[in-house]
Each structure stands twice: as structure tokens, then as C-alpha cells.
Fold this protein.
Amino acid sequence: MEIMEIKQKLHQFKKKDVIVHPGEYRNIFSEYATVLNLETDYRVFNWKKTIESVIKPLGQWHFQFAAAKRISILKTQIQKKTVLIKGESNYKSDLSVYKSVLKREKTFADLNLELLPMQCEVKPAKLRDVDVLLKKHYGSNWRHFSDVDLSFYKRIIDNVIDSYESITL
């Protein structure tokens, strides 16, 4: 892409004062990159919870993780196809010993990945702020505004209106 083309596309962004619907972001990004959609193009698993059941906490490792300048990982065919790790406190030293960081009687085969639900909890204070911004931009009657499709925000705010009303500053 030439510099002139990039400048023209940037000028196109500057023309757009307000982006209201999340789909507009996807359209803009898709002009410059490949956009992947959650659940259709990829899935998200709860690695943090799964790893806690198989790998020791960092404080129980055979070296100080935070002080390590170089970390080496070795995949072995011996010992049930496990992974061994060592950490060096200096770049030029090679004094540490490879050891497993797995909990006793655990292997990587014990990893049972849990699929994360496709949802995001929005805090009531954030919803209140969005509502205030919508009222400032479109007026206090923004829910009935017909010139722009604000159904995305209306649906989210109305779904949690009970907890939203209880928030006070």
C-alpha cells in the first residue's frame, strides 16, 4: 500500500465523528486486517483454572522465577513425555538442573480445558457512565431516538436496570 493510499484512508476515519454500533468497528478493522469473530473463528478456554490443577504455584518451583534471566524448557520422551524447566539467574551460566514443575502424580494429559462462556459482565457503574454519555450526546430521551440505531446500548442497559438503579455516587 502506498503512502498516498494510507493518507486517504486515514482521512476517511477523520470524517467519522461518532461510531455508535460495534459492527462499525469491525467494518473499519476489516479494511486493514483480518477480523476474527469469537465462537465462529476461535474459542477461548480457561487456561488459568486448568493450569492451577496441574502445575505447582510459582513459589514452589525449584528456582526463583522472578529472578531468572534465562528460562530453558526441555521436552523429554522419557518420564511420561513430560516437560522439564530450569531457570538461570545469569545469562552466561548453566548451573541449574532441569526439573518438572508439575504437581505430584500429574501429567499434561490431566489438562481438561474448560470452554469459557461467550459473555462479559459489565459493571453497573460502567453502565451508568455509558447512560450519562448517551444522555449528553443524544438527550435524555435517547432510548426513543430514531435517527441512529442505539439498540445495542439499550438492550445492555435495560437487561441490568435493577442493579443499575441501585448505584449512587
Summary: The chain has a mean pLDDT of 81. The chain is about 35% helix and 10% strand.
